[in-house]
Specification:
This protein has 389 residues and is of the alpha/beta class. It is 54% helix and 16% strand. The protein has a domain of 234 residues: Spore Coat Polysaccharide Biosynthesis Protein SpsA, Chain A (Alpha-Beta Complex), CATH 3.90.550. It has 14 helices and 10 strands. The strands form 2 sheets. The chain has a 7-stranded mixed β-sheet, sandwiched between helices. A 3-stranded antiparallel β-sheet has the order 8-9-10. Helix 1 crosses helix 6. It starts with a helix and ends with a strand.
Length: 389
């Protein structure tokens, strides 16, 4: 009887959660297709883009950021060294876009390299700009992305705004689909309720005056990451972050590597552990909510077929399983995932299983590996030691 009640309650909770998130996603997609507002005067702004590595989409992504229609936008691209591949790519782009500024930040010692690069970009932008826009270097942007991202701050609705990204899966491999599902889940959670909205370093905007007033320069100089650390700080100060659905970036994914996907998931969980520990603890419930109800549904249906459980128990499990498949089909349609519904279901199961394994491994972790650099991290995301591998 206990299993029956678990099946009923757990399955209902899971399906209702997926339904609520699906409705949130559809609303976000509708709002993301709206035109960005036009203003008589836009605040002066700098677009700061830390770049590293050799991502195959980096050139297309950087080019899309250089084609923004925000009036007078100052593009500032930052690399750690002048010799790395990203720096050579930026040098080539400067011949086509002379307004582009390339800043060489040098190696970080007491903070994350991305933080160090971002701060070098802020310094290069100067005191004249009113808004600071931060963006990742590997996602494609529409021409009105910057206006969408800056609008909530320019209109005075908040001092901080954020966007997010969505994955376009280009093949039906399980890892590609699982990666798309994970990003989709995180995006929908961002838009579920304002209390869930957090700044995302891949697309965030803030007032320059607030950046200085809050002492974010010194704060980031000691921290491992920009967005999660800022989320913890803003939550403590009671400062809201406004989500701009139109500030949506696009990630192309094809034959995605399991190692890369797992390392990405590991960082997402660890950033929360060190910077927003309460949310990290709550996050531990997610794999249980995702994994256990489907197992209970399977137990009920198989048990009914074998005569081991009452027929009505099996029928409940069958109805909940059908509802779950219908909801997953809706999620699949939202990202136009290739392949069959059964592969999408397998990707859902794979996501839950890998996430549970990753979460358990983060419990004893004392640091983060990111772009070949090991950061030993303390409370609040403060960097205690940096080791380059």
């Amino acid at each position: 009887m206990l299993m029956v009640w678990f099946l009923l309650i757990g399955g209902l909770v899971q399906c209702l959660l997926l339904l609520r998130l699906l409705r949130t996603g559809r609303r976000l997609d509708r709002e993301s297709r709206q035109q960005a507002p036009w203003r008589r005067r836009w605040p002066s702004a700098a677009l700061i883009v830390p770049a590293a590595g050799e991502h195959p989409m980096m050139e297309a992504a950087l080019r899309s950021l250089l084609l923004q229609d925000y009036p007078g936008l100052m593009p500032v691209f930052v690399t750690a060294t002048a010799e790395e591949p990203a720096a050579r790519l930026i040098g080539a782009l400067r011949k086509e876009f002379p307004a582009l500024r390339h800043v060489v930040a040098g190696r970080a010692e007491g903070c994350g390299q991305k933080n160090h690069n971002s701060l070098a970009g802020v310094a290069a932008a100067g005191d004249a700009v009113e808004l600071l826009l931060f963006c990742d270097s590997t996602h494609l942007a529409r021409p009105d992305f910057a206006r969408h991202l800056a609008a909530p701050v320019a209109e005075g609705r908040s001092d901080f705004s954020t966007g997010y990204h969505t994955v376009r899966p280009r093949d039906a491999s399980l890892v590609t689909l699982a990666y798309a599902f994970c990003v989709q889940l995180m995006r929908y959670l961002q838009g579920l309720t304002p209390s869930f909205t957090q700044p995302w370093g891949g697309a965030m905007c803030m007032r320059r005056a607030v950046f200085e007033h809050m002492g974010l320069r010194r704060f980031w100089q000691e921290n491992v990451v920009d967005d999660c650390s800022l989320a913890g700080l803003l939550a403590g100060l009671g400062k809201p972050v406004v989500l701009s659905p139109g500030a949506l970036l696009y990630t192309e994914a094809e034959h995605h590597s399991f190692r890369v996907w797992r390392a990405w998931m590991d960082r997402q969980v660890l950033f929360l552990k060190f910077c927003v520990p309460l949310q990290w603890l709550l996050l531990g419930l997610l794999p249980l909510v995702m994994m256990l109800p489907p197992l209970a549904m399977l137990w009920a249906v198989v048990g009914m077929a074998l005569g081991a459980v009452p027929v009505w128990t099996g029928l409940i499990g069958l109805c909940l399983a059908a509802w779950l498949l219908l909801l997953l089909h809706g999620w699949r349609c939202q990202v136009c995932a290739p392949g069959s519904l059964w592969r999408w279901l397998a990707a859902f199961v794979l996501s839950a299983g890998v996430f549970a394994e990753v979460y358990l491994r983060t419990i004893p972790a004392g640091g983060i590996l990111w772009h070949g650099i090991w950061y030993r991290v303390g409370r609040g995301g403060r960097v205690l030691e940096v080791r380059r591998q």
